[in-house]
TrEMBL record:
It is a multi-pass membrane protein. It holds the Pfam family DctQ. The lineage of its organism: Bacteria, Pseudomonadati, Pseudomonadota, Alphaproteobacteria, Acetobacterales. This is TRAP transporter small permease protein. It is found in: Cell inner membrane; Cell membrane. Keywords: Cell inner membrane, Cell membrane, Membrane, Transmembrane, Transmembrane helix, Transport. Belongs to the TRAP transporter small permease family. One of its GO terms (molecular function) is transmembrane transporter activity. The chain crosses the membrane at residues 23-46, 58-76, 97-119, 139-161. GO terms for cellular component: plasma membrane. Part of the tripartite ATP-independent periplasmic (TRAP) transport system. Its main location: membrane. Residues 35-157 form the Tripartite ATP-independent periplasmic transporters DctQ component domain. InterPro entries: DctQ.
Length: 169
């Protein structure tokens, strides 16, 4: 009987792990804030017929930041969806190289998205673009946070690439 594949441990210390954990924690806080705003607004609408002013502007920003916050941690912990239906029969060395390649593609994509979002954030700041609605919130900072989260995700993916290629992924 062969032993089951046990994934190698993800890093628990170091700057990459600290950044991923911090962003995930802040992402969770952001989601909780969005949930509290929604709940309070619904209760206020039900009891006083007046919701929180601008709730429909604040909640999408909070939830978007929340989702972005978990990307690096999910990548670092290898908690993303993996589809290996067509590769289970291949030798482990071949699947390790394939995993290394696709992790490198993921890193390149997220780093490119981080760069593009940073450009978008600076452009949004320069143009003074705001949300359309009651509060007219500036949202360049939210785009910048998304860029940071994508950059951290790319760094987390790059942490795994050499490990995959050495057969330790």
């Amino acid at each position: 009987m062969s032993e089951p594949d046990v994934p190698p441990p993800a890093p628990t210390a170091g700057p990459v792990a600290l950044l991923a954990r911090t962003l995930a924690f802040l992402g969770g806080v952001s989601l909780l804030i969005g949930a509290c705003i929604t709940t309070t607004s619904v209760v206020m609408r039900w009891t006083t017929s007046q919701p929180i002013r601008g709730d429909f502007e604040m909640v999408p920003i909070a939830t978007g930041i929340g989702v972005f916050g978990f990307l690096a941690y999910g990548t670092l912990m290898r908690a993303n969806i993996l589809v290996d239906t067509f590769t289970t029969w291949l030798p482990k060395r071949v699947t390790d190289v394939m995993d290394g390649f696709w992790t490198l593609v993921w890193a390149a994509l997220t780093l490119w998205l981080a760069e593009r979002m940073m450009v978008g954030s600076l452009d949004t700041l320069a143009s003074g673009t705001r949300t359309i609605g009651l509060l007219a919130l500036p949202y360049w900072w939210a785009i910048g946070i998304g860029a940071l989260c994508f950059a951290a995700t790319g760094i987390a993916a790059l942490w795994w690439v050499p490990r995959h290629l050495r057969g330790r992924g």
